[in-house]
Design a protein that fits this description.
heterodimer; A: 429 residues; alpha/beta; Aconitase, domain 3; five-stranded parallel beta sheet; 16% strand; B: 168 residues; Aconitase, domain 4; seven-stranded mixed beta sheet; globular; binds iron/sulfur cluster
Amino acid sequence: MGMTMVQKILARATGQASVKVDDVLEPRIDLAMSHENAAIVINQFQEIYKDTGIEAKVWDPSKITLIFDHRVPAETSKTATNQEKIRKFAAQQGILKFHDIRGDEGGICHQILPENGYVRPGYVVVGTDSHTTSHGALGAFSFGIGGTEMSAVWSLGHALNIEVPGTIKVTVEGEFPPHVYPKDLVLHLIGLLTAEGANFKVIEFHGPTIKKMSTSGRLVLCNMSVEAGATSGIVPPDEETLRYLKEEAGVTDKIEMMSPDPDAVYDREIKIDVSKLVPQVACPHTVDNVKPIDEVKGIKLNQIVVGSCTNGRLDDLEIVAGILKGKKVARNVRMIIFPASARIYRQALKKGYLEIFMEAGAVVMNPGCGSCLGVHQGALADGDVALATTNRNFKGRMGNPKGEVYLCSPETAAVSAITGVITDPRKGG
Amino acid sequence: MSIVSKVVFKVGDDISTDIIYPGRFMATVLPSETLQYAFADNEVFNKKLNAKQVPPNSVIIGGKNFGCGSSREQAASTLKGHELIIVAKHFARIFLQNAINLGLKMIICPDIDASEGDDIEITDTEVINKTTGKRFAIQPLPKARQAIVDAGGLIPYAKQRMLAMHNK
Ligand code: SF4
């Protein structure tokens, strides 16, 4: 029987000829990522070795990456102290893929991994962050785990008790109409599947529209697959994957390719034609509460956020700059922009986007998660309504359970910033 | 084994980790400290928990997809800190695994129907609502996960495995 992409990856990672759904495996891990929550992982890691007389050493420091992004620069002394503990741990264990709070190499973990070539097709990647699903965009099986589970990975080099997931095959056809983007596609898909529709399953993306899509767009799809409950999203690697890894991530060594078997068995198959898709908006307070823009236009806004691991890349900023050039952000809204990494920030600076943003009245923040997480850098007031290019609109997500968050594409966010209300990008700002 | 208890709180479907443990408290990581922020945005229930008005083994009834959203382990550790039992229709993947790893008691009970104040008995195979007299089957955990529960959580389990790796 043929295997899906993830089944093939898991077979390889366990040295077996084949695996089937619900087999319980302990795959070797190619990359293990944590951010500030490494503070929990370090505590639990030390617990594993406590009273054993064995020195607590990670299984392979070259396969661990640590990135500060959730609260950068630290918003409290407590966070700063956690970060210092992680910094010391990285130095002591010889973890070199460590991205501190820096203007040369910092950024959001799910941007740092792809842009530095840390993820390759066929890898098994785990991260203590639910949006670790993102890296399926490069053909890896990449999924989120908790801190305690990560401590076991650091110790053993394997993930424990992974059940081989079933796969939903999503085939996408058609040309995106103007003003419609991968973000609109994934919001539409989540609305279709619901927040639990892909629980314990992988979403494998196929079709001519995906073939033509940039890695940046694929990252959007895989990033948000978790919002339908998926263990991971994945795009079988192709020419575009090779181009991205070589040209944008600077990979020089040999890249192995892999694809699902033509006779692979899927749990469910979904076909989507994007040629008639309209801009989509996810409404409060669940990501699957998705509506076509017509049904929500005119809603008054207080804050616009562009950024996050979903839509804070250079192509997103380019779209926003194209719209804001020579225009002004409406007086009654605050617009906050977070480039996803320091590299993107510098590229946007060179291209003049940051100047356009500031002249329009937007505030450009340092790369990081910022208000996506609702800890600092843009909390909502009671009753505030936000429109964001981020990935979650749960109650309280932007720091206040009395606020509301709508999710959309960068273009919808930009045109709405000019009008101050949710605006259809097809009708212009 | 059976536990006799009471429903102290009932929530709907898709309860996210942001509701169980808001992101703004994520810098707090020690289980001894995370327990103060359980359902922090629900002032009434959070106050009750922190005033120790909720006895250990009290039951929270959840709907579908309990614990969806972020991988933050604090969402499991805060509930474990109060020694609560979560009975839900089903759980989101990462939360389920975190709960198992930390030893938080949670029961998958696809048809559960109970209200706040109901008396509940939990056996190995079913949840009995003693107030309404209805019985609901428990869906057992996958075998692999049960092995971690039996070891007393992931840390003791990983410790055994690590020692075996070092031939001790
Ligand atoms: S940008 Fe938002 S979703 Fe992405 S890693 Fe940061 S907090 Fe999570």
